Amino acid sequence: MRKTLTAIAAAVFAVAGFVAPASAEGEKFVLVSHAPDSDSWWNTIKNAIAVAGEQMKVSVEYRNPPTGDLADMARIVEQAAASKPDGIIVTIADYDVLSGPITEAVARGIPVVTINSGTLEQSKKLGALMHVGQPEFDAGFGAGERLGAAGAKKFLCVNHYITNPASVERCQGFAAALGVELGNQMIDAGQDPAEIQNKVAAYLQSNPDTNAILALGPTSAHPTLAALEQSGKAGNILFGTFDLSPEIAAGIKAGKIDFAIDQQPFLQGYLPVVFLTNLARYGVMPSNSVNSGPGFVTKDNIEMVEKLAGQYR
Amino acid sequence: MTDERIKQVSALRRAMIRPELGATAGTLLVFLFFLLIAGDSGMFAPEGIKNWTVVSAQFAIIAVGACLLMIAGEFDLSVGSMIGFAGIVIAILSVQWGLPVWVSILAAFAICLLLGWVNGMLVIKTGLPSFIVTLAFLYILRGLTIWLSVLTTRQTIIGGVKDVAQNDWLAFLFGGVVFKDLFVWLADIGLIEKFVAGTRAGQPVVEGVPMLVVWAVLLVAVGHVLLTRTKFGNWIFASGGDAQAARYVGVPVARVKVSMFMFSAFCACVFATCQVMEFGSAAADRGLLKEFEAIICVVIGGALLTGGYGSVIGAALGAIIFGVVQQGLFFSGAESSLFRVFLGTILILAVILNTYIRRMITGER
């Protein structure tokens, strides 16, 4: 019996060792994301808050609902507010679910900065100090400006998640920059790579005057690239995409892809920590929200990006 | 002493062979642990207490259903999917179809009870393990949930329930708060903080006791009385202990098991309704992994995976342990990925402790 109890006590203390607070000095901030544990994209943000925490000598905790359940996320925001941090950084993954807990945190006098998902209007309505993210329409607009300057006239927007309103905004922004109607230049590509490849090939065959393509992420960019290679058009057609992947990086290097749009998640984690620290220490805060994207990755800067991909980019 | 039924048993021994002994000790340990390492972090301030109480209550609601079903000798792995499904049903009926919210809630309960009945009948009629039957329903219900929500709204989150649920009498029973005046008074005498800014400035940060907590207490009380004070409770133990022997002495085993499947579905629907009413939206991915969390609470609470042994009070204590550990680790500033390491450790420790104590006392091998 005594042996068992000793073993249990030892185990409890071993676990207690884990849970010592990360930093006793400096301000304490909490970042609450909506991403499930399996989402690797958020690793960049985790690295960003670690860097910012070290530089500013503050502690920043990262919290997320393990399964991505947004109701669980709402509880985490409530909990974050109850622990009285010097600031909360939170995504607006679902306005309905999160508006209660976020406005309550604001009403308790805790400075809140929203990042990533959600819009400027939603952020303002919640009483947040600012929003750090990539406005989707503007990102598409920026892409349109670039390819327009290179001579894009008729384009194809390969949308692999048409149910998400943000994805449609990207295509609309692109069309607006070119000064044309979106119309049927956006296709609902679906998620299956073979299907996407065939749809793109079919579209290009029936619309031979298309001279530019916008893909909304690796899911649609990879099969699109395959379709271009098969028809021998790779490199002869303007091609921009959202987000980065090893294949996209190789495509940029080979001159088959003109650019990838990076929403620079690093800034979404880094800037709020810096801003909130300065607010806590000196009472200063920029008065406008920050567009962390679009950041363009082209042949000129691909090398540095490639080296940092997955860590800081 | 010829009849062991009238043998004198010491009070200590009677206390030691109760299934919830391990969970009681565990609850005290967990509270002690967090008072020591997170006592000044806001965890034991009113808002902190509300936070882990609500989370524990959520676990307790599904744990009561899972507990009675497990004592009756069966599992329900479809609880998590049932939560997502019931929520979407309520949202579609009320927001998309424009039915009154109380009608939507009653309809969701009717559908869930029916699904629980189907689960139970399939297990009884086919003789398949409930593990397989309810695993199938885990997928069927999740798929149906996503399909239904995309079909009616083209998205997987349906919002706007809050607007239609205003002034609905049944919605209040799931999403409201009670004892508001008491909490305003507590804030006035300074025991609870008040909001300092915004439209709710001057109101207490803890508004009252959420109905979710009331439901949890109610379900635990009903489940405990049902199990320990009624004939039906004995039938539950008998069905899970040895179904064949129970049948020989006249216990309607099929009826007991099917009604426990229905009760488990009922609890899942209570959970879902409270969630939808509180947050004002339903999502197709709600309730992921909740079936296992319910089972973990029951096991920490001292029930046997093989059925026939356990207690509702134990399951409720298991839910408190789970909730306090999950939220407490946050208050103490632990790395969030380590929460599951801690949870797994607690689960194993609890089971070892329970088994050890039971063997020591009952002399079973």
TrEMBL record, chain A:
Lineage of the organism: Bacteria, Pseudomonadati, Pseudomonadota, Alphaproteobacteria, Hyphomicrobiales
Main location: other
InterPro entries: Peripla_BP_I, SBP_2_dom
SUPFAM superfamilies cross-referenced by the UniProt entry: Periplasmic binding protein-like I
Protein name: Substrate-binding domain-containing protein
Family: Belongs to the bacterial solute-binding protein 2 family.
Periplasmic binding protein domain location: 30-280
GO MF, any single term: carbohydrate binding
Alphabetic keyword roster: Signal
Gene3D superfamilies: 3.40.50.2300
Secretion signal, residue range per the UniProt entry: 1-24
From TrEMBL, chain B:
Gene Ontology MF term list: transmembrane transporter activity
Compartment(s) of residence: Cell membrane
Protein name: Xylose transport system permease protein XylH
UniProt membrane topology term: Multi-pass membrane protein
Gene Ontology cellular component annotations, sorted alphabetically: plasma membrane
Pfam families: BPD_transp_2 (PF02653)
Function comment: Part of the binding-protein-dependent transport system for D-xylose. Probably responsible for the translocation of the substrate across the membrane.
Species whose genome carries this gene: Pannonibacter tanglangensis
Nucleus found in the keyword field: no
Domain of life: Bacteria
Keywords assigned: Cell inner membrane, Cell membrane, Membrane, Sugar transport, Transmembrane, Transmembrane helix, Transport
InterPro entries referenced in this protein's UniProt entry, alphabetically: ABC_transp_permease
